[in-house]
Design brief:
Distance between the termini: 82 Å
Largest sheet: 8 strands, mixed
CATH topology of the largest domain: Rossmann fold
Number of strands: 12
Strand content: 5-15%
Oligomer: single chain
CATH architecture of the largest domain: 3-Layer(aba) Sandwich
Number of domains: 4
CATH superfamily of the largest domain: Vaccinia Virus protein VP39
Number of helices: 19
């Protein structure tokens, strides 16, 4: 039987995350398997998210009130200490004595009387001394100051500090520590944004228009929109605004053939099908049958019939050459632009991962180039902030494919902020400026076919 006390459940979830499972997936699974009121569900989510998001800062503070290395303490006890430290230092609605008592009880469950005494002593000392604990000096050691204060890996902070500077990096790190807004994508085939907004208001779910996408709504308060009849009937989907904008940059015409090379669970796939009013044909490939099963259910919910699903690696799928009018490559990437969505993600990244992914991204672009028709459109996008995965990949691709050119993507999106348009023709959405996930986009166009006769006359 699953214990439904929020702190007990939070520690159990965090242990599974430490074993390699996704925090979002484990949290959803655990909450769906228990009966809890909304308040306890909210506290469980807050504890899991907070302990993961602020892990670096919490570990630094805990080390200052310990007389031995924090890393040498058994994993379950480290997690219990983090959950306790998060409540003591970053939440203000739970009395200190209640936090300590619950942590001690948990320490007995996962350890013994000695570990219970350790947890009691450490958290009581932290409660007394939290206001006097020091952080690295910002002027003398800006990397460690930012990494500790805002709880990010030092290697990532160092990269961003070099590229963005202190103020911009600080702003980005702060945004990453705030949960993202819940945004809805209006099904433009069936309802207007204003119409859906009025329907949701009748259910007590107030919304506001997204500032960039003309087809999005931000939920400002209220319950779970997935529980509404309008969701079950396919009138809207849950999707981040930055993700919506990527499809709006592509803007394929009706009755075209298209390919979504890395569809995932299909947020962009379904939007593409909506965009063309379910006309033409769209192939969606992904290597995961689990993700495609989710997409299959979404297509059914939204009554979209123009999409064919294919479980395959897009690099090797036998796609007919010169068969596609448009291609979306939402490339697998490091995801450094979407860290606020996954509290555990920042601790799973590495510099080596970025370099490995650039090779995959170039291989996928090469496969796309073969399948695209002359004058076809290829939109390359990532939710990465790293130049190695973005403009450097496009520079390499264009150097090797003279039949492609970069078309300024921003000119095709009339509500895109001016500071998101790059002079080179790229689009960059930055969390600290635009409130979206970080995205990069390049719109590539393949040159028209040149007939053999034209070629002969031109060069003789």
């Amino acid at each position: 039987m699953i214990d439904t006390q929020p702190r007990v459940l939070a520690v159990a979830i965090l242990l599974r995350v430490a074993d390699g499972e996704s925090a979002n997936a484990v949290l959803d699974s655990a909450l769906s398997a228990v009966t809890m009121d909304a308040r306890d569900r909210g506290l469980t989510t807050t504890l899991v998210d907070g302990a993961l998001r602020w892990q670096g800062r919490l570990d630094y503070q805990l080390q200052q009130v310990l007389d031995r290395p924090f890393s040498e303490i058994e994993l379950p006890i480290r997690i219990i200490l983090r959950v306790g430290a998060y409540q003591l230092t970053l939440l203000d609605r739970i009395p200190d004595h209640a936090v300590v008592n619950d942590a001690v009880t948990l320490a007995r469950r996962y350890g013994h009387e000695g570990t219970a005494k350790l947890v009691n002593a450490v958290l009581r000392r932290l409660a007394r001394e939290a206001a006097t604990l020091t952080f690295p000096d910002a002027a003398a050691d800006p990397v460690n100051y930012l990494a500790t204060t805002y709880s990010h890996p030092t290697w990532l902070v160092a990269r961003w500090l070099t590229r963005f500077g202190f103020a911009e990096t600080s702003a980005l790190l702060q945004v990453n520590n705030t949960p993202p807004e819940l945004t809805l994508r209006v099904n433009r085939r069936w309802v207007s944004r204003e119409g859906l907004q009025a329907m949701l208001a009748m259910h007590g779910v107030p919304t506001a228009p997204t500032p960039i996408s003309p087809w999005g709504l931000v939920v400002t308060e209220g319950g779970n929109p997935r529980e509404l009849a309008e969701y079950r009937e396919g009138l809207f989907s849950i999707q981040g605004e930055g993700s919506m904008v990527m499809v709006e940059l592509l803007r394929p015409g009706r009755h075209r053939t298209g390919w979504d090379m890395a569809a995932g669970v299909g947020g962009k796939t379904t939007y593409l099908a909506e965009w063309v009013d379910d006309s033409g044909s769209l192939v969606a490939t992904d290597t995961s049958s689990t993700r495609l099963d989710v997409l299959r259910q979404e297509l059914k919910r939204m009554e979209l019939n123009s999409v064919t699903l294919l479980e395959a690696d897009a690099r090797t799928v036998p796609m007919e050459e010169l068969s596609m009018d448009y291609i979306l490559l939402d490339a697998p990437c490091s995801g450094t632009g979407s860290l606020r969505r996954q509290a555990d993600a920042r601790w799973r990244k590495s510099p080596e991962q970025i370099l490995d992914l650039t090779l995959l991204q170039l291989e996928l672009l090469s496969a796309a180039s073969r399948a695209l028709k002359p004058e076809g459109i290829l939109l390359y996008c990532t939710c990465s902030l790293e130049p190695e995965e973005n403009e450097q990949v496009i520079d390499t691709f264009l150097a090797e494919h003279s039949d492609f050119h970069l078309e300024p993507a921003g000119t095709r999106h009339t509500t895109l902020p001016a500071d998101a348009r790059d002079v080179q023709g790229y689009v960059r959405l930055l969390p600290q400026h635009h409130g979206t996930d970080g995205f990069f986009a390049a719109r590539l166009v393949k040159s028209p076919a040149v007939s053999a006769l034209h070629y002969s006359l031109h060069f003789e």
